[in-house]
Amino acid sequence: MTRTLVAFHAHPDDEALLTSGTMAKAAAQGHRVILVVATDGALGLASDDFRADGDLSAVRLAEAQRSADVLGVARVEWLGYADSGHDGPLPQDPPGQVRFCRAPVEEAAARLAEVLTDEGADVLLTYDAHGGYGHRDHVRVHEVGARAAEIAGTPRVLEATVPRDTIARAVRLAARVYPFPEEFDPTSFERAFTARADITHRVSVRGHIAAKRASMRAHASQASNDGSQSGDRTLAAFLRIPRPVYDLVFGREWFRDPSLPRGGADGIRTDIFEGLA
Known about the structure:
CATH architecture: 3-Layer(aba) Sandwich
Pfam families: PIG-L
Number of strands: 7
Order of helices and strands: EHHEHEHEHEHEHHHE
Helix content: 25-40%
Radius of gyration: 18 Å
Largest sheet: 7 strands, mixed
CATH superfamily: LmbE-like
Keywords: Zinc
Number of helices: 9
Structural class: alpha/beta
Strand order of the largest sheet: 3-2-1-4-5-7-6
GO molecular function, one term: hydrolase activity, acting on carbon-nitrogen (but not peptide) bonds, in linear amides
CATH topology: Rossmann fold
Organism: Knoellia locipacati
Protein name: GlcNAc-PI de-N-acetylase
């Protein structure tokens, strides 16, 4: 049976890191895959080459479309919100827009629910309660996604995440091959994402690793150096990992279904559509 998967992300490039393999796998299986981004990503770091016309948001949304194209995504939607930024006080709203974290949850959820209802979504991918590594827009994705699924009656919500111990080990392994930039704090993964015992789904995406890597590569602005850093951006560092190690690090994706017992009553699941009516 053909299903519809909606992947909801905070910024262009987030899908590449956490769910692109699952999205590519679902599309290859003939399912309809939709990408929804909450913000334009305009506060992301990028080199001057990508800011030449003063509109990084247009660049990043175009990169999201290129990523979607290599993954087999059928539709890309932007909810219309502005990037809230990661650190410091919440910036003022840009003209004609609202920062995602300043928008009421109910309003943002209604926008997402409209897409879910229009598409008849079977599965919605969001983030865990930590927002992964804690970005405030990611936390808001968790909140908005949960409420939107309630409004639309979406049968299944899966929170994209990573087992803390697994990613910490993978980062240590990758660091042996390539030194990460100063901005990258490997210890942050010991405090983020989800405990392994709470993971309900583990999806093998090794067969779609080329699409996942191409999805990362599509977000060229976020792999660029703005001149203030001594090394590569994190995304660039990931792309420089040799394929055998890259396949090991990024060959699986993890999710938590909040409606299921910790770890799943009958063990870890490997199919995000399993058990749907």
